[in-house]
């Protein structure tokens, strides 16, 4: 099976933010919350000193910490690795870690701090689309550079962001196609269940239009949202069971952050087996499953571009490096460290940025942006990923995995080659 398939104003950002609220160098640096003085010229500071400063913008507390802390750790591991090999243009990378604490307006504040006060050459960060949209006007105003490592809803293409996660045609659409096909159980009814913010709502708008194009009636689509940090899924899971009566039904989950834990526990509590009502998740991975008894969840699905379980020499090396880092820096649960898709995307993004800086001979954002076009990297997924020359999105493979009893995934489908991203979905208007 083959799955081939501007910019937001500050006003739109405000609307998205309100909607989300209503809906909702080889040593490890200390997490940083206070800005420190720096010179005025960011480009000169980033390249003219003894180090090149790199911003790490991830929630290390709050509802998203369960997911984002691992990305901070991945970024620091990659920086250590680069520094051990001589750094970038002969200079060590100096990470500047800040914690926006799952507070969406604070992401904008911290991004501004990183660019104007800390003088970082680039920022690696964000997880949710609402945090990215908080940062978007800041990096555009200041001509900063953000590498965003998580799947998202599309409908955006900023010259100041490189999207190293999946667009809908590299994850959501193929996942639903799989569920509708023979291998996925030939689902006829769909539950669109998500956390209440821009990514699930926009992705589900795309999926609803896609399903209707395939002849699925509105009556066969259930759509429901819960706030960030929601913990009581008893009623919702009960309603899913009722909705599934009579027709083969699948759940598309865009639940994010720590809400995944109570949702999956409730699936187990109510005995929903994958053979009866398969759940296809877009925002649950190895990290979120690590603290759950996954035995009742065996067979449920996730769609990503990478799984820890894929077998190839590059992934073996990547996993081992992360495990060594976790032990060396005494990370919590170091002995049980897992890798996941956004961690891989973070690792790929940092290395591609390094390659682009070296090609450009400078950290100047405009020159790095130009040098990023066509950059490629042999990724832990086993594929060579490339940055599109025109749209700031990675060409990525599609993978679908089944949850195993040990919390890992068996890959049941992977695309023969990386798929070019569609930043703007053909199923809804721009």
Automatic annotation (TrEMBL):
<feature type="signal peptide">
    <location>
        <begin position="1"/>
        <end position="25"/>
    </location>
</feature>
<dbReference type="Pfam" id="PF13433">
    <property type="entry name" value="Peripla_BP_5"/>
</dbReference>
<dbReference type="InterPro" id="IPR028082">
    <property type="entry name" value="Peripla_BP_I"/>
</dbReference>
<protein>
    <recommendedName>
        <fullName>Urea ABC transporter, urea binding protein</fullName>
    </recommendedName>
</protein>
<dbReference type="InterPro" id="IPR017777">
    <property type="entry name" value="ABC_urea-bd_UrtA"/>
</dbReference>
<dbReference type="InterPro" id="IPR000709">
    <property type="entry name" value="Leu_Ile_Val-bd"/>
</dbReference>
<keyword id="KW-0732">Signal</keyword>
<dbReference type="GO" id="GO:0006865">
    <property type="term" value="P:amino acid transport"/>
</dbReference>
